[in-house]
Give the backbone structure.
Amino acid sequence: MKSHEIDYTIIGHDIQLVEIELDPNETVIAEAGAMLYMKEGIDFEAKMGDGSEPEKGLFGKLLSAASRKITGESIFITHFTHRGSGKSQVAFAAPYPGTIVPLDLEQIGGTVIVQRDAFLCAALGTKISMHLNRKLGAGFFGGEGFILQKLQGDGKAFIHAGGTLIEHELNGETLRVDTGCVVGFQEGIDFSIQQAGGLKSMVFGGEGLFLATLQGTGKVWLQSMPISKLISQLGTGSSNSEKEGSGGILNSLLES
């Protein structure tokens, strides 16, 4: 199925949203809960499939829903369709601060592999499926990267990166990255998890026990602040504040 041709505007800097402009009968699909606002004429419906294969029966839809559940996403994808006349807009925002990355799938080979929480929205006709990393170490040791999502099509798709987006173009090169910082990569890139270094570096280096290794030819998208790191830092901050607060109360009691 040929993807719908949609126009878009990315709004904001550090905390972005994408506004999709639809002509009559055009549709954009999005993760459940991603919609920020929609204007007159937009109708929406939650469906189990992404709509890329309309002829797919109930079993196919259930299989697609099950694969999305495995990736940690909602089994439903929301379809937003412009039912009115003229043009109308619907906007989507990511669940945490960061950068929205517009991808023209046709220009980058028709396929991109992304982390399971990176997909935001796409033109109808984009196929969203589960992608299993062949190297089991990515799942057992890296904590990230074993179960990924594959986006396929010839239209526009939008993914989300936490913090600042970094794009690298590899030409037969190797890039080693913190495991949670990989947002996505083209199909020609080999993605694996490798030991970070010697025992001393692993224990005292502060970089984790394993690193993601990206090797090959194609584009790679990275994020400076994955949600796991953000949660960890916020938790540490709260913990420190609580300790300081408790200490302050204790000192006051002792002084009195």
Observations:
- Confidence is low (pLDDT under 50) at residues 136-144, 241-254.
